[in-house]
Every structure is written in structure tokens, then in C-alpha cells.
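Minutes, project check-in
Item: structure for the 147-residue chain
Input as provided by the requester:
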Amino acid sequence: MNSKNLDAINMLMADHRAVKAMFAEFEELSDRSKVSKKRVADAICNALLIHTQIEEEIFYPAVMEMIDNDDLMDEAVVEHASAKELIEQIQEMDPGDDLYDAKVKVLSEQIEHHVQEEEGEMFPLVRKTRLDLIALGEEMNQRKEQL
């Protein structure tokens, strides 16, 4: 993998695109595709849990030292907590359960909002700092492999 791919922001954006594609795949599935729905929803949940853990353990602490925007960072942390609650509920459910599809849809909308804020507000601020995004990306990648 070349160093450009290990840039922390590029890595997070690649995760965002991968999860967005999985949500789109879920949307395409019919109500009869319960096994596929469960597989895709579980993949979404797992990807998001790893992504949020890496952001919270490594990316956000590094960013907080560099940008002076507590509101933006606090909101991101609260959005993660909200998403994790929904993920937990989805993981405990089956696709035939009432509200299963609705919960996956709401999670999709929450994540889309969160991604827009990160990519539209947070990441541009971070790019203007002296933060070593390559070193940070390598650290995040190592942690991702552990998870």
C-alpha cells in the first residue's frame, strides 16, 4: 500500500465510501432476502464499530490537539455514541423483526450526516494543521488490523 493510501483522512474517507456502498446494497435487498439482509447489516455494523473505535482512540485525540473546535469534536463523539446504540440494537435483532429495516435506515441517515460533517468541516480543518497524517494513518491502520 503506498503512503498516500495511509494518509489518515484518505483512509477514513475510504471507510466512509465502503460503508455507504454496503448501505446501498442493503437498500436493494427485498424483504424475502432475510439471510442477505442480516449478512449485509452485520457487515455494516462491524465496519462502523471498527471505524468509530479507530477514530475515538487515535484520530480524534490527535485532531483535538490541533484544531480549536470543541463543539465539532463533541458533536462527533455524541454522534458515535448514538450510532453505537443503534448498532447494538440491530445486531440483537433479526431481519424479520419489526423496525429492523427502519433502524438500518436511520443508522444510514445518521452516518451520512456524520460523514458530511467530517468530510465537509473537520477534515478540511485538519488538513490545514501540521498533523502528520501519514504517521497517524499508519498507526490507525495497525490498530485496524488488530481489531
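Outcome recorded: The chain has a mean pLDDT of 93.
No further action items on this chain.
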